[in-house]
Amino acid sequence: MADLTRLVENEVFMAFASYATIVLSKMMFMSTATAFYRLTRKVFVNPEDCTSFGRGENAKKYLRTDDRVERVRRAHLNDLENIVPFLGIGLLYSLSGPDLSTALLHFRLFVGARIYHTIAYLTPLPQPNRALGFFIGYGVTFSMAYSLLKNKLYL
Amino acid sequence: MADLTRLVENEVFMAFASYATIVLSKMMFMSTATAFYRLTRKVFVNPEDCTSFGRGENAKKYLRTDDRVERVRRAHLNDLENIVPFLGIGLLYSLSGPDLSTALLHFRLFVGARIYHTIAYLTPLPQPNRALGFFIGYGVTFSMAYSLLKNKLYL
Amino acid sequence: MADLTRLVENEVFMAFASYATIVLSKMMFMSTATAFYRLTRKVFVNPEDCTSFGRGENAKKYLRTDDRVERVRRAHLNDLENIVPFLGIGLLYSLSGPDLSTALLHFRLFVGARIYHTIAYLTPLPQPNRALGFFIGYGVTFSMAYSLLKNKLYL
Predict the structure, then answer these.
(1) By the CB < 8 Å criterion, does B22 face chain C?
(2) I need a surface site. Which of A30, A65, B38, C42 has the fewest CB within 10 A?
(3) In chain C, what residues touch B24 (CB-CB under 8 Å)?
């Protein structure tokens, strides 16, 4: 267990673990937001989901799409598309021995940018608010990927 | 290599590795299910995929959507949205030195809940079967995130 | 920090880190491709994204779908569905102490197959080019999962 104790003592790794957990919890919140809008607006995609609002033809009118629900779903998918690279590249970056303050700057910028992206998407704020959130997160991930490949490339 | 040997000797990490591999293999099965329904029901989205069923106008009639295919695709996307947080949070949780029996309870509940979710989605079973599968998996992931952030927060 | 130094000295792990970073960077490129086609073809899904092309009724005509954009989005989603299992299973496989040359064969085949899949999807090349790219990547991931579960199963 000695190595695990040491991994937990590694500050960059612990910082990555904390920020990754926060940004993943934020992403999971999107599922709740989708469920909330589906239930309050009575907008469903599966016939079995709206049986409590009526049966047969009466239920079919709830099988529809709604701007608000689709907006949350797009924000959720965009999260997935951007948080997956952050998790993979960030984990490997954390283990590659970067400077603590540089690593913290990357993690904080990413998490802040993704939270800002969600707020800009769901409000919605006028562009380029959402684009800014997107590109900061994107740039941070590429910066970690570049730092990894420059120093540690093994092909 | 000493540390890797020790990581492999760590029972919580090995349990996580086993359950993560199982739930990811289950998720990959969804691609096969989509391909199966697309081929047996002749429902395609890309023109190049149905050239063997006819060319030109004759092929275009296969470019359509189908309830069954869309259902599998929704189940697949829901898997992605929930398994990605489990992978990230679960890996960090496994390395944070939890009690083995507590960790096993988390991993088993999650994998069981996701398999149940897939069965409930594809059959489809009446609600709240699918919702139950979803919320058990969701709760397990949040429980690991809470345990991580409570003990190891480093911001 | 001794363990981290050793992890970085582990050749299989470093090879995994390099290939995972490459395939994730490739996946991130899909976001740029979507943005490129949306801007050059003036095809948007959010009203706030096309205000610079006109306001009110004038802007609404840009809220539409486009074959090219949808094709890039499908390729992106397929990447997510396949790269997530590769990341999870590949990381655990790398830590399970496989033979270096076997591991390299897996990583190279996967990354090559996914790049080929993207080219076949976006060009588009006639089938079975895309299916070939898909199934090689799929098979590589299952081969790593099988090797993990056979040797290291802990349930």
Answers:
(1) yes
(2) A65
(3) 84-85, 88-89, 145
